[in-house]
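Figure 2 data, in text form.
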Amino acid sequence: MKTQIDSGRDFWAQKWNQGQTGFHEGAPNDLLVKHIARIEAVKPHARVLVPLSGKAIDLRWLAERGHDVVGVEFVDKAVRAFFDEQKLEPVESVIGGAPALSAGGVTLVRGDFFEVASEALGQFDVVYDRAALVAIDPLLRARYVETCRARLAEGGATFLVVFAYDQSRAPGPPFSIDPELVRELYAPRSVAIEALETRATPTSTRLAEAGVPALMETAYLIR
């Protein structure tokens, strides 16, 4: 019988194999760019963990600002696409038993985020989550948040970007993560949860056809 993790892997691997990557932004996330000073106030040159990183351009953008960026992504096609599209020649290694590629200040570990050993990855100053939590099976959310927390160094922070919409109109992913749910997931282990900005953002064709013309996108800084 397949586990929830196995089913999630299959779903996203199929999306990548079929080229259905509308969730991939062709530029650094606007909210990241606008609020980067809040991240760099945590540490000017931070170790940044990016769960479910895909081939996000954000990885290169953060590295060019002097951050040490580590992404974890289980789809090999996505990992290799990042370096190909950024015209970087990666060096191969193994981290926590998982293959890894590194170049240009970015290391991408190809493995399941829950399974790559924390001690191999080390501690991070910042977790940057743009559309990772919204992609996680709801029954795995608490485990995901705890896994991220365990990889943060003392005084570290999470920069979280999530979407909220009427989930009754369409199934996820992306799953709706509203402010109440953010507090429920993060408050027990956090000193402060700050909503930096909320804005309407265009949605996918599937959601639009289901009567969801826009998503409410919110960026949080969680300490």
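Caption note: The CA atoms of residues 202 and 214 lie 5 Å apart.
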